[in-house]
Amino acid sequence: MRKRRRNVVYSSADDDFQARPPERSNATPKSQPPAQQTIRIQREKKGRGGKQVTVLRGFQLTEKDLVKLGKQLKKACGSGGTVKDDVIIEIQGDHRDKIANLLHKQGFKTKFTGG
After folding, report:
1. Could you tell me the CA-to-CA distances from 63 to 4, 22, 34, 68 in Å, in that order?
2. What is the CATH number of domain 30-112?
3. What pLDDT does residue 55 have?
């Protein structure tokens, strides 16, 4: 068997490896009122081994508020789930109608998306 030749290139220039601190604004993010938010509710099963997941997108909440809401929805549906990327809530199973009712009671506007 032939040994592969791997060409590794290194740079000695200092400019390539300077770590820049992330830019942060002084303003703390705030949650928008529920009446000003439209939450998109979608059922997905592609890439999940055929299992259905209810995905909620469009939140304009702080990370703390989103985690709290996700916990309430999981408890109400009696299933597991997660909060991803601080903007998406995933609930295991098809709970679109139940979640829409719960969000309406809290003042959110909802919209069903997808097929």
Report:
1. 47, 19, 15, 9
2. 3.30.780.10
3. 96
